[in-house]
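Per reviewer request, we include the raw input and output of the structure prediction for the construct analysed in the revised manuscript.
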Amino acid sequence: MKIKRFLAKNMREAIRMVREEQGPDAVILSNHRVADGIEVVAATDYDAALIQMAVRRAPEPAPAAAPVAPAPAATAPTAAPRTAKPAAPRAAKPAVPVAPTLAPAPARMPAMPAALPTVAPPEVQQLRREIGGMRRMLETQMASLVWRDMKDNQPERMAALRAMSSLGIEPRLAREIVGQVPQDGSAERARYLPLGLLARRIAIAETDAVLKGGVFALVGPTGVGKTTTIAKLAARWAAHHGTRDLALVTTDHYRVGAQEQLFTYGRLLGAPVHTAANGAELNAVLAKLADRKLVLIDTAGMAPRDQQLAAQFAELKSVRRSIRTWLVLNATTQASDLEDILRRFSPASPQGAVLTKMDEATRIGGALSALIRHRLPLAYLCDGQRVPEDLHIAQADQLVLRAMQLARLAPATIADSTLALQFGAAHGGN
């Protein structure tokens, strides 16, 4: 057995040094921290049985011998004559301290060998690659078989799947909807039934909830149109109830000109605009506006991975007054980005969503799929910059019709092979 000591800055570097010098079969006998980092003792040709046997055969340490006290000197029994003067007492010799005998330290049991992360041999890696390739080939073949069977024996379902794909609906959601289409139905029913099934899955928030009043905070990424949406909602309230019970609040002190934009909308509407830089100021402002029936809060737009996003959520949750949070989403955002946005803004506990820039989107199936997957109710739609004309109440059937219109305006040719792979991937994921 070959034992060697290694000094490194951290454990990862120590393991790398052990592997480079002693190979992947080396084991770590012990490790502990030192002044410069960490010290590792490693060995090759390690035999745990031999070490344990050597430890058992080690002689036990003998107990330390107790120091023996010096015996007192014997005195003669003869008495001194009475006339003799008593002898002066002799000064006692200082006792020499005897150093105590230290018992030898017991033999230290060897540390259990730590398993080193090993790299698979090249043959195993090649085998894994081949198995992965075979699996992908089998998935492709199965997808082709399923697609061929649907194309030959279930033409209604195949047409429905193609229609869902043209709308931009995710493959998994499209497969779930197509699976509810009866096989023996008519072609007309198979054409319109999937659209109805899609509309049923879209959750819609309370109809025109802003007209019933309350405190609403709009959150979302940068550039999705939160400030413009705030102005549209405020104008909608003003058209029905006036501006007496309306107030606007902005917490966006990051973006240059953000507060000025909301102040401009406030002057045009005749509604007061307040600012709050932190949670304490927001609490104070909302306490001052307790008599207002509708308070709209415009938050700072932040990227989904912004580290200050958690602080923004904490400010909203620290407010003592009840706040309804709506997430503003851009209809032109890709499905994967929407998934990331919905996941990272979920700590804000949004109770609804507003879908903006509908007029710029060529497909809204990805946005509908994301909302359906996260079960987030949709409250309003925005399809332009006009205030408040371009704000609409969300309706499921109208959304599906809008998706169909967009698909007709910009038709996409989807090859059968692409649909087969998408359908097979969704089929294999269940």
